[in-house]
Amino acid sequence: MSDRAVGDHQRAGDGPSGTVSGPTTEGAAQRLAELIRQAKSVVALTGAGISVPSGIPDFRSPQTGLWSQVDPMEVAHISVFRRDPERFWSFYGRRFDALEDKRPNRAHAILAALEREGRLDAVITQNIDRLHGRAGSRQVIEVHGSIASSSCLRCGGRFPLDEVRRRQALAANGVPLCDCEAPLKPDVVLFGELLPVAAIERAEQLAAAADLLLCIGSSLEVYPVAGLPELTLAAGGRIAIITQGPTRLDHLAAVRMRGDVVEELEALRLALGVEVWAPSRNTGSLA
Ligand code: ZN
């Protein structure tokens, strides 16, 4: 599994830019709804784009938020955590600040509704923001971990976010400590770390077994998550891509939707006739 270091941020190369013109959003939504009705297993794969309407910028987009002032590969790196936890936490504390009060948006809620209605088996996500779970999705595979907890690398102690924040506030140097006094590490995959084996294996099984993989808000550039659509295709399944920017797999997508993620999923929801109960119609803290 040594090739599974997410921090490598290996790029997939410049494939075709997906200039094939698709049907209108409504037509694409109808087509996608039909594929979902026919499929025995539908799985979603989500990336940063689904959390943008919640006010969480995609750090790969230039000049947004925290990541414009620092090089995340330099500070959010496991070697910095080990060598200089104070420096690491001075950055990661701000990352928590930026994530912990964010709320799920309508796109998260629609995926939760699809699962509830038996139209979606699971969500595989690259996001660490916990928003799928907070929107009500139950089968969520967080392949990059999440901010929900932090752990001690020395004794294995594990603490929920609110306790980590309490300990951080109490520490003079801002480094939250375990009961054994070692620094806690967020349970997110840092640059230079391997992906959690169990999560990625489950993601691979789901992708290979899916008749339809909905790729939502992901540029499909970071391996191994970027390889999941190919597992679906290789096993005879289809992929749909709902993302604003081009991806290298556009030419292989049965359905390609390029609009705003909330609007596209809303069109899909209407085409399927699925109701969203909660949260409210609020599309997110910035929308
Ligand atoms: Zn400990």
Give structural notes.
This protein is an alpha/beta fold. It folds into two domains: 19-56 and 104-144 and 196-287, Rossmann fold (3-Layer(aba) Sandwich), CATH 3.40.50.1220; 62-101 and 146-188, SIR2/SIRT2 'Small Domain' (2-Layer Sandwich), CATH 3.30.1600. It is built from ten helices and nine strands. It has a six-stranded parallel beta sheet, with helices on both faces. A three-stranded antiparallel beta sheet has the order 5-4-6. Helix 5 runs parallel beside helix 10 (261-272). It is elongated and about 55 Å long. Residues 1-22 and 280-287 have low confidence and may be disordered. Zinc ion is lined by residues 152, 154-155, 157, 178, 180, 182. Zinc ion (ZN) binds next to loops.
Helices and strands, with pairings:
Layout: H1 25-38, E1 42-46, H2 72-75, H3 78-83, H4 85-100, H5 106-116, E2 122-125, H6 131-135, E3 140-142, E4 145-152, E5 158-160, H7 161-170, E6 184-188, H8 197-209, E7 212-216, H9 228-234, E8 238-242, E9 255-257, H10 261-272
Parallel strand pairs: 1-2, 1-7, 2-3, 7-8, 8-9
Antiparallel strand pairs: 4-5, 4-6
Helix pairs in contact: 1-10, 5-10, 8-9
Bound molecules: zinc ion.
Radius of gyration: 19 Å
Give the uncertain stretches in residue-range form.
1-22, 280-287
* CATH arch. level architecture of the largest domain: 3-Layer(aba) Sandwich
Order of helices and strands: HEHHHHEHEEEHEHEHEEH
Number of separate domains: 2
Give a list of the ligands.
zinc ion
Main β-sheet description: 6 strands, parallel
